[in-house]
Design goal:
The complex is a heterotrimer of chains A (250), B (423) and C (296).
Chain A lengths: L3 E10 L2 E11 L4 E5 L6 H8 L7 E6 L11 E4 L13 H7 L2 H4 L7 H13 L15 H14 L4 E5 L7 H16 L3 E5 L6 H4 L2 E6 L1 E7 H4 L2 H8 L2 H8 L8
Parallel strand pairs in A: 3-7, 3-8, 5-6, 6-7
Antiparallel strand pairs in A: 1-2, 1-4, 8-9
Chain B lengths: L1 H5 L1 H26 L3 H22 L4 H25 L4 H26 L9 H4 L7 H20 L1 H9 L1 H6 L4 H40 L5 H23 L7 H19 L5 H31 L4 E2 H7 L4 H13 L3 E4 L2 E4 L1 H22 L1 H4 L16 H13 L15
Antiparallel strand pairs in B: 1-3, 2-3
Helix pairs in contact in B: 2-7, 2-10, 2-11, 3-4, 3-5, 3-10, 4-5, 4-10, 7-10, 10-11, 10-12, 11-12, 13-15, 13-16, 16-18
Chain C lengths: L2 H25 L3 H22 L4 H24 L4 H23 L7 H6 L9 E4 L2 E5 H19 L1 H9 L1 H6 L4 H40 L5 H26 L3 H19 L5 H17 L1
Antiparallel strand pairs in C: 1-2
Classes of the chains: A alpha/beta (250), B mainly alpha (423), C mainly alpha (296).
Amino acid sequence: MNPVSTNNITVAYHRKPVIQNVSFEAPEGKLIGIVGPNGAGKSTLIKSILGLVPKASGNISIYGKPYKKQRQIVGYVPQRGSVDWDFPTNALDVVLMGKYGQIGLIRRPNKKDKQEALECLAQVGMEAFANRQISQLSGGQQQRVFLARALAQNAFVYFMDEPFVGVDAATEKAIIQLLTDLKSKGKTVLVVHHDLQTVKDYFDWVMLLNIRKIAFGPTEEVFTQEHLQKTYGGRLAFLDQESNGVNPLA
Amino acid sequence: MLDLLANPNTQWVLVGTMLLGITSGVLGSFALLRRQSLLGDAMSHAALPGICIAFIIVGSKEMLPLIIGAGITAYIGTYLIQAFVKHSRIKTDTAIGLVLSVFFGIGIVLLTYINRNATGNQSGLNEFIFGQAAAMVRSDVNLFVIAAIALLTITFLLFKEFKIITFDREFAQGLGLPTVFINGLLMTMIVASVVIGLQAVGVVLMAAMLIAPAITAKYWTDRLDVMVILSGVVGGLSGLLGTLISAPISGMPTGPLIIVSSCSLFFLSLIFAPKKGLLTKAIRLMRLRKSTSQNQVMQGIYEFIEETGRNTLTLDDLISVQPLSGLRLQQTIKRLQKRNWLQRSTETYQFTDKGIKEAHQITLNQRMLQMYSMHEMQFAHLPMEKNNWDFLSLPNSEQQPLFELLSKHELFPSVLQERTEDR
Amino acid sequence: MTYTMWIILTASLVSVACSIVGVLLVLRKMAMISDAISHTVLLGLVSAFLITQSLDGLAMFIGAAIAGILTAVFIQLLNSAGVQADAAIGIVFTFLFAIGVILVSMFARDVHLDVEHSIMGELAFIPWTTVDWLGIEGVPQAVWMISIVLVINIILLFVFYKEFKLSSFDPHLAAALGIPVVFLHYLLMGMTSITAVASFDAVGAILVVAMIIAPPATAYLLTEQLGKMFIYSAIIAVLSAISGYYFAAMLDTNIAGMMATMTGLFFLAAFLFSPTHGVVIKKIRNRFTTYSNDEA
């Protein structure tokens, strides 16, 4: 049974299809990057899997069952900018939020939950900031708190929306470390990513997405000039220039 | 009715309410587009303490000082809202609610104080809370006429400046326009239109005078100049309707009726406006759903043929190419048969000649979209949004590069090897 | 209990009940909904009166609560029909309030349904209408009502504390975790409505809005913890109520208005002098830091 399998997902706003007929079977225990041009539907794809945007058609299953039945085993890291960081709360509390689904209605987080949340913070190198107010964290630290929260969900499958955007080097390292840890525990992680230079280093598998699925498979097989050309087309040359001529494939 | 219209008092009221409706409609369009509709609510509430203070100072119910007092505190309230948002983590909605309720509280304190302590003829200040259009007299209307003409003239003269500052303030700054001055002027004019409306509709309902005509107008046009004029017309019309309906019924308040009139015009537009109304939208959405599922099935079959080379499909094949839910797939297939695009022969389905051409077009368009998205920089000049993402309607010269890309990626639909120009 | 004590108690209960929903509304950037709901309560009261032809407390309460929730529903409907948020709120509440005013002047002018009263409130009359209930005698009806609402608010807040917190902070994750986001939204709208209704008769629409928005906004500038934000805003609300009463008595003026004024003064104090967010404090600190940087 695959951790994530989708069958012909289509999402459309007005007449423009945002993603069309995307089907894939994500293998277990892999770090999977989802890359593609802006507006190619990367975030939309994971949001539609999580039921956050309505689908025009298509089916999704998580370990063989519909998502609604599998919420407990799915972790989600939204884009950092999607919440108001002025919210009056501290880092530990945000991490604890990851456990709300398991704790259930009415019941409160107990000591054990808090202990686990602290451990999750430690895993991203943020244990010293547990009681820090979230408005006083740097962007990278906020991102790490979000990751710790996903860890606290103790899921089997993780979806992360652009976790590397706007983070410092330390956070980038922490994220990579965390991804590796998750993988070694047999978890599956799908990451929306836009930096082509790092795809080969970070991900075992990759999906190239441009409205439709262009290619999906092990990185070394799929992340080829030809597929990139098909995904980015004329923009690839542009991207090359932007990164000082460093070829992402080199 | 005619008797009433002949009554000079009613005539004054009518002129007054219509003028108020027009000015607040015109200026309300700017407030709406700047997403400051509720600021008008705060302004009108914040005007109350000013009215009371002016009364305490002047000691009489003369219109001009009261309006100036109202304007000053309304302006202070507006300034405070912006200061709270700028200098602290307080968000706009909270700042607006805070200022409006606290200033109104202050106003009530002063008003009660005046009612209990002042000796002169203070009755009538309470009017400002709910408005009393019927109590308007000739001197009031004269004042409104002057104010309305001034506001409308300035709007007319500075229309393009107001337009650009509403649309993109930073850009206006880049153009070297005195944005601080223009912004301040526009703000002052909005305050002025609120303040002069208070006597007719009152503090509580004044916000609607700014919002309802403007949002109604927005349903009928996409152009700012048309919208501003239309909004003025709707505002004036509401003033007229409200006054005419309330005049013959004794004790019927004019202000609320003006508001109900303009809101009703809004609800009508919301539902029935030709392009943006809900009815049109619902119909369009239904059509879109149908055509999307049709296109999906057509393209699915086309690509099935492209991949397998088989021209006939069983129902299972159809289900495998298209994951529409059972009922929707059935309906879609029926529709396709009806349009004579798909043929059924006992167990299998196949395209008609007409159908395969159509499917080819659909697939081609879809793949051109994909190319477009890959090379968005290169094709940024194409008005695709406007064209409903219909690439086939583009002139040949524009299609050519897309065709070349398709060939390069070997994505040119291959079942029907004919170019669109044969059509 | 003395007359004064009843008034202060009523106002304090109102202010605490309001500040509870207020904290959630302010954090969800929905503060203006309270303005809308507190106004449309009038329509609910009139409609209840027209239907039942009586001024029965319970019918009025239910009518007004329904009007409040309908307001939230209408705003949501307009929003999803593509009307921008601020305009949707503005249109819905002015329209419903205007209808309320018209109905009052057409059908209920001779009854005790005073529009002015509904906006300004008349705390001074509260102690005179008493209801004996549960063997307790001489307690004003308003105190009963608002106490019940306060208890409901507190219970709901405790029961759904973490759900409210998460869905306010990160609705996306909340939805993904299967927390009933829509239900919580309307629950909060319901709480706001019953709070507005119960407070309305005593203090009027405007104090309701002031108490819902100002104390939570003040607390928002004073603390970084949600729990403390609830406690601080309740304390500030009660302080405003008490000080407002005495200032009003001193100046012989409207009590609710003075209480609203006090909430504003507390906010202004926090805006200027909050240890963490105060404008003046920040300025002083900045000057100090620049100075010490220069030294270094």
